[in-house]
Amino acid sequence: MRHYPAMNHPQRNHSTRSIALAERAHNRASGGGGLGDIAIYILMRSCNVMMAERLGSLLAPHDLSALGYITMMALYSRPENLANPSELSEATGETRGNMTRICDELVDKGWMRRVPNVEDRRRVDLSLTDSGMALLNEVAPQLRRNADDFYKRTFAKSEKAALLQLLTQFSEALAGEL
Question: Under DSSP, is residue 32 helix (H, G, I), strand (E, B) or coil?
């Protein structure tokens, strides 16, 4: 499992450097004019990378990857705690090949098990084991508290509400473009 430096480490925030490099490249390619709104994309991508690293570092003590956690939570949300790999692939946005790899890892760790499908004997479903559910019941509240504390430190209540509204609007606009 990869170890990530502390999130406040000065080398972790590449946003300023990324924007400066992108600005220089964009000016060279387009003959000037700056980045414009491309800067928003760069900042959002930088934040996404840092948030993924942050989640990875929070899950590392449990020997659980972010994709493993998301997969387990997707399964936990399903009726009767059952889903096939294709359904988990759709729920997480991962490819079927990557989902198979993730599920194999979670089965090997004893957090998920393969079970025969009662309606189609050719199909195999996945289910969380008792130890998998116990892990989620331990980790999910920790992640929630950590996120709550982070956003309280970072934003005023009104800023957080505005951010949520803007991100929702942004997500809906992007979904409409697909």
Answer: coil
> Residue 79 gets which letter from DSSP?
G
Give the global pTM. 0.79
Burial 120-145 (b: 16+ CB within 10 A, else e): eeeeebbbbbeebbebbeebeeeeee
Tokens of 168: 């929702």
pLDDT digits (tens, 9 = 90+) for 10-66: 455 566 677 777 777 777 777 777 777 888 888 888 888 889 999 999 999 999 999
Q: 112: burial class by Cβ within 10 Å (0-12, 13-18, 19+)? A: buried
- Calpha distance 25→62 (Å, rounded): 41
Beta strands (DSSP E) in the chain are: 82-83, 112-116, 124-128
Q: CA 22: distance to chain centroid?
A: 25
The total number of residues written for the chain in this structure:
178
Contact assessment for residue 141 and residue 149, using Cβ atoms and an 8 Å cutoff: no
Report residue 157 as tokens: 């209540």
Q: 78-119: per-residue pLDDT in tens?
A: 988 999 999 999 999 999 999 999 999 999 999 999 999 888
* Residues 22 and 38: beta-carbon distance below 8 Å: yes
Tokens 């009726």, residue?
79
